[in-house]
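Deviations from the work plan: none for this task. Representative record:
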Amino acid sequence: MPETADNRITVVLATANRDKVKELRPLLERISPLFNIVTLQELGVEVDIEETEETLEGNALLKAKAIFALLSGRFPFMIALADDTGLEVEALHGAPGVYSARFAPVADGLAPTYQENVRHLLHCMKGMTNREARFRTVVALKGSLPSPEGSFSIEHTAEGVVQGNITLEEQGDAGFGYDPLFLVQSTGKTYAEMSTTEKNSLSHRSLAVQQAVLYLENVLQQTHLLPIVTNPHS
Ligand code: ITT
């Protein structure tokens, strides 16, 4: 079979967000014997993909497809893995949702900072007693894998959801984005009061990644690739 330098198939993390990468890496550790996980930064790629779809699924696929189209020529086989995440607040009818990165109003051409989005959310929810919310991640995979006959394509999405409540003020300074405002019902802590390991043990992102990993393992098993990939000498 065609091989990458170390015989593993390349998985490119199709995100420009380094905070996501910090969480994704340990979540993908389990498949690292099979796949070489690389970031856009490590590949020297700087790209701004405009998120033009109106759903997390749509934008996750859009990002995975764009990175696959850009980079698949560099590798015999590769998978682009994208993550689109939204915080959906019940009393705000699902906002900021797919617009979570662009929630606070800022001047044209600028992107709001995490802090500006957090303050804007607190402002929008002033006086609201219903503070129920959920974090939702859609992970999209777009790639080509080796098969005994040559290659085949994959395109898949997986979702992870966690229910919580929006706090009245920021709590904790770990994590990123809306983490200081998102209280996970089952723990009594915000994500920002958790270590990366603890957040990864229960987060929306980890649930989506687990589903995506299961899908990949199934595909490899069904196509009898698992032994080929794991044993480069076979
Ligand atoms: P990429 O598209 O390059 O992956 P992004 O930051 O634009 O990066 P999203 O559109 O998926 O990614 O994220 C929307 C925003 O939601 C993000 O900028 C954060 O403010 C917030 N966010 C995403 N995941 C989060 C998490 O686990 N905890 C807290 N906030 C998060």
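The CA atoms of residues 57 and 138 lie 6 Å apart.
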